[in-house]
Amino acid sequence: MLKDWKIATKLNILLVFISAIIVVLSSLFLAILLRHNSEEVIAEKALVLIETMSSIRNYTSTQVNPKLASRLETDPEFLPQTVPAYSAREVFEDFRNQGDYRDFFYKEATLNPTNTRDKADDFETQVIKKFRENPNLEQDSGFRSFAGGDVFYIARPLSVSKESCLRCHSTPQAAPKSQLATYGRENGFGWKLNEIVGVKMISVPANRILQNAQKLQSSVTSILVVCLLIAIVLINAFMKITVTKPLTKMAQLAQRISTGDLSQEFKHPFNDEMGLLAASLNRMKVSLEIAMDMLTSDSE
């Protein structure tokens, strides 16, 4: 059956096969490239958020805490608004009400926090230890697994950079009375100046990254498929004009010559391979015509 196929059919099959290979290989390459790109985009957003939370922490520590510090000794309950971590988390929750950040999560995971909700889990503990063992390490990122799926995270070390922090975290005897009344004397003490006590961690579900990558991949792949289809159409049109159509006409001319019709010749306007073939066919016709005339003369 293959020997009965026309050149155009064989060419189209070859083009489709090549196009399919290009699409498959491009999709695999794009999947890797676009996932990496999506990670970078989300990482940039996360880093901006971490820097924002750091600024909020600093503002709370330098502007809010001094104004409310005296009340920590007199109020019956501890004022969480004086704690930088509380301010950062509250502001971040407001960020999450916006569409672009609803899938982001922020936690100041601490080894020995005053509020147990900030207690580092096993994975976060290992990240904290990594920062402690590598003082020059400024950032850590990657994926971690939960029951609901993988999560992409970015973490930065959280250290005791100001002596004012030690008021609440050095010893129970130095802590404000309202803090002891609210949280007790067991947690959040023993911190030291410049010690890494936790991490600021922002995480986002991995499917968010995959969805972004898949959307871009689908768009790019669709554009690639359309471009390849246009290329196939253009190649077919070019082959029809420059190869198939001239070959068909030369085949028809050769058929007439074989039956003795020497009245026509094939004219090709280009000096390409088809032009050389046409010239050869015309020379063959002329030679055959001369030979026929010579035979006719000899017979007379």
TrEMBL record:
Listed under GO cellular component are:
membrane
Give the record's keywords alphabetically.
Kinase, Membrane, Transferase, Transmembrane, Transmembrane helix
Boundaries of every HAMP domain copy: 241-293
Extract the PROSITE patterns matched here.
Answer: HAMP (PS50885)
Gene Ontology molecular function? kinase activity
**CDD domains per UniProt:** HAMP
Q: Can you tell me where the transmembrane regions are?
A: 12-34, 220-239
State if Transmembrane helix is listed as a keyword.
yes
GO BP, sorted A to Z: signal transduction
* Protein name according to UniProt: Two-component sensor histidine kinase
Native organism: Aphanothece sacrum FPU1
